[in-house]
Specification:
The chain has 248 residues and is mostly beta strands. The protein folds into 2 domains: 11-76; 81-104 and 114-150 and 162-233, no CATH class. Helix content is 8%, strand content 33%. It contains 1 helix and 14 strands. The longest helix has 19 residues, at 81-99. The radius of gyration is 21 Å and the shape is globular. The model is unreliable at 103-108, 154-188 and 242-248 (pLDDT under 50).
Length: 248
């Protein structure tokens, strides 16, 4: 049986009558929903995780003011915490590649490129394994839950202009909300546009220097279709104007 997931890294500073909790040496997952702060034998519902070292409580802290106190963040839905951490790890790896020249380029002369992502696969243990172009691998943690029941075979296309191993893993996440039917989709990161003809297009701009910003994409079941949801987390507004949606 897997251990219950808690967050206990670092210490916290709390003030009587305040909703602000400051972490010291903490590494909290920003914007993760459904947490309780356990402190000195009492639990306090968390309103928001503002960053790696900042939490806002729903109600003011009623205990004694303390500095460097031991704590535990207890997820109300523990099954989704590992998946959220894995996604954050992937985004940090991509941000690191961007910062080191592995993705994109500046407007100057030709420089040496950094490592890129050439593959991502969920192994038999349910861990997302990312392979870099320099031969290194990154274990992004557990992202795959138990396999669901096989569905009916669909009808394939007679050919297209996609000539790359675009989808490396398509799996059911554990801990989805009640009534949810979400599936995770991982795609490779390339140095240019892949050879795919888009019938619809959407852009999200993420600043390179914002380590808490990220993009999310998932497939959501609908009665007679599957909707691809694309969104941004902690990305500042307004976004620059993008292309209009084109339909065939």
């Amino acid at each position: 049986m897997a251990d219950f997931e808690f967050e206990t890294t670092g210490l916290v500073n709390v003030t009587n009558g305040s909703v602000d909790v400051i972490g010291v040496g903490t590494n909290w997952v920003a914007s993760y929903p459904g947490l309780m702060l356990w402190l000195d034998g009492l639990s306090y519902p968390v309103k928001s995780v503002n960053g790696r070292n900042s939490i806002t409580l729903v109600h003011p802290y009623q205990g004694s003011t303390a500095t460097g106190a031991k704590y535990a963040l207890v997820p109300v839905h523990p099954g989704t915490l590992n998946a959220q951490k894995a996604v954050i790890t992937v985004l940090e790896a991509i941000n690191n590649l961007i910062a080191n020249g592995g993705i994109g380029g500046g407007g100057g002369g030709t420089g040496s490129g950094g490592p890129g992502i050439i593959g991502a696969v969920v192994n038999s243990a349910g861990h997302l394994i990312i392979t870099l172009s320099d031969g290194r691998t990154i274990d992004a943690g557990l992202v795959k839950g138990a396999d669901g029941q096989d569905g009916q075979d669909g009808t394939g296309s007679g050919g297209g202009d996609i000539s790359m191993a675009a989808i490396q893993g398509f799996s059911q996440f554990a801990g989805t909300p009640v009534g949810g039917g979400l599936a995770g989709l991982f795609i490779p990161v390339t140095t240019g546009a892949p050879n795919i003809t888009l019938t619809q297009r959407s852009e999200i701009v993420i600043p390179w220097d914002d380590k808490d910003a990220g993009a999310a994409m998932w497939v959501e079941k609908r009665p007679n279709a599957a909707a691809i949801i694309v969104g941004a987390a902690n990305v500042p507004l307004p976004q620059p104007g993008g292309d209009e949606v084109n339909r065939r």
